[in-house]
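Lecture 7 notes. Example A: sequence first, then its structure tokens.
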Amino acid sequence: MQNTMTVSSEVKDLSLSNAGHNRIEWAGTDMPVLGLIGSRFKKELPLKGLKVSVCAHITCETANLALALQAGGADCLLIASNPLSTQDDVAAALVKEYGIATYALKGESIETYHRHIQVALDHKPQLIIDDGCDLVVTLVQERKKQVGDIIGTTEETTTGVNRLLAMQRDGQLKFPAVAVNNSQTKHLFDNRYGTGQSTFDGIIRATNRLVAGRTVVVVGYGYCGKGCAMRARGLGATVIVTEINPVRALEAVMDGFQVMPMMETAALGDIFITVTGNRHVIDAPHFPLMKDGAIICNSGHFDLELNLEALLEIAPNKREVRPLMDEFKLKDGRRLYVLAEGRLVNLACAEGHPASVMDMSFANQALALEYLVKNKSSLSPGVIMLPEDIDQEIARLKLKSLGMKIDQLTKEMQDYMSSWKMGT
């Protein structure tokens, strides 16, 4: 821990820093892979002298990523990627205890959020870590003179990767962008096990409702949807999945879940969870069909998955009945409950993904920045994957930290797998 430093910041209360420091340390005890990377970074300084702007959820896990980057010589500035995901004590500790410039307040306005994006770009970054692609999009649209200074960016969300691919198709992506979200040690674990557990952690904390015996509707069956459906079933719920992709819908059926269109399931659900990354997947036609007491929440990146403006039109009587739980009363007396203003329920109402799974995700982030710097002269603009050998090494380190061992190919096996001459 470092002493108080003079760094720029906009956080809720610096006096919260001691509690934040304790939580950062506690998370770090369950992030051994990132810890090893941080120790190596401290010796090798692969990011020495480079400015990094990070737009992410300001949690104790993200703090450990920032510390690893700082150990590697980076000059970091952090802003929140979501108005409700900031842990104010962690933000205070980053500033007061570790000297890392941080602009994040839980409950910040959209205006403040956009102002902080400008602050992150004023930092003149050469490297960006983005969560949803707002920082990169703003750079490309509003700060074209800075584009040439960017070595590269990394993106951690499905939503953000989709936006980067759209920028690439339009010829607007002028630097390398590592799709960290698509690394196997990210989406196979963070999206599935992290989102599954943390989503229900948020729902249960917000509502104190029993999940067993309820009907849970999971909107979208990507890796996040798979995780939510898995955990809902484990808690004793009946699970219905809605999908637009026939392969994913078939996969949900084979996994033992009911699959039907949103218009059919709207009247059946007790709890609705959106995890699509798309706009208005629960929309104006769906709300009037829902039963009294239905709980609606989102675990996709942006709040626009729920058309809350349409809900307000048919249910203008809105009141907060519990922290981060709003009741919308329809004209016929039915009540619908929306959690976290439609924002990420797992981060707004709980603490986000457990540290153990973020250990792999943030190992990807740290190593992606190192990869961008080491290969800056040879990488072309566009969306790229982190090399498979780096992905595999993260998995090996994680297994080692869990005390697990795996087999190795023998010479005979290697020869067989690499030859076309040997058959049955």
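Example B, a different protein, same format:
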Amino acid sequence: MTPPVNNITRFLDAKKIPYTAFETVNEKLGALETARFLGVDPARVFKTIVVTREKPKKSILAIVPGTGDVDLKSLASALGEKKVFLPTEKEAEQITGFQAGAISPLALINKGFQMVIDSSAQQFAEIHVSGGQRGLNIRLGVEHLVKLTNARIARITRFA
């Protein structure tokens, strides 16, 4: 079965970025469910969390491993902010234009988001991120993701 083609896969193809697309079920899957579905290490499946600032400036995309949660204090500190906030799922969907479970850093390049990838990503050559629609997961090199998204790398994950 061929995974769906969308703007993200076309963008990666056009940039000649190597990636692998995986088709999952067409419903909201968390990072841990996605890892189980694909049979991969959950520490390699990263989720994209929308975070807002106190003053209405650029929203932030925190890209963290599915095995943890975004640490708002660490994220604020990494960005030189006093405080950052988690919007509701509905607000995150309004901010990004994507359904929860399909918010992808690759779909939001050049859309005014500041991106921060948790430093744990650096232990892997490749990680998984959302493909910008439910049912599509993309595995690509961490270096490519950082370069494409102009992301900052920082320790921003809190593990339970």
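Note on Example B: Helices lie at 7-14, 31-38, 72-79, 89-96, 142-149. The radius of gyration is 14 Å.
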